[in-house]
UniProtKB/TrEMBL annotation:
InterPro entries xrefs: Ig-like_fold (IPR013783), Ig_E-set (IPR014756), SoxZ (IPR030995), SoxZ_dom (IPR014880)
Pfam family, one: SoxZ
Gene3D superfamilies given in the database record: Immunoglobulins
Organism: Aquincola tertiaricarbonis
Name of this chain's protein: Thiosulfate oxidation carrier complex protein SoxZ
Domain Sulphur oxidation protein SoxZ positions: 10-99
NCBIfam families in alphabetical order: SoxZ_true
Length: 104
């Protein structure tokens, strides 16, 4: 699932960058029931990995407590405008999503 992550990153004057991610995913807990009373199967992101210039800078393990279309914000050090960020996620059904962005 290409472009399943929207990436925005802005460098600050002190060599840091504020990174914002928005991931397109339904994030079902497996506890909700549909209109007919049937349980909706669990479907959620289990792992998020962010790399900067090919080097991993963040790895997160997620579960069912994360909301639909999750967002994530964090700050990186030693970042320059033009540096490239790649984001990849994996869900409990084995599906993958990716996205990338350039530090502005």
């Amino acid at each position: 699932m290409a472009d399943a992550v929207l990436v925005r990153a802005r460098a600050t004057a002190d060599g840091r960058a504020v990174v914002r991610l928005l991931m397109a995913h339904e994030m079902e807990t497996g506890l909700r029931q549909d209109a007919s009373g049937q349980r909706v199967p669990a479907w959620y992101i289990t792992e998020v990995v962010v790399t900067l210039a090919g080097q991993p800078v963040l790895q997160a393990q997620w579960g069912t407590a994360v909301s639909k279309n999750p967002s994530l914000q964090f700050t990186l050090r030693d970042v320059q405008p033009g540096d490239r960020l790649q984001v990849a996620w994996l869900d409990n059904r084995g599906r993958r999503g990716t996205g990338e962005g350039v530090v502005a």
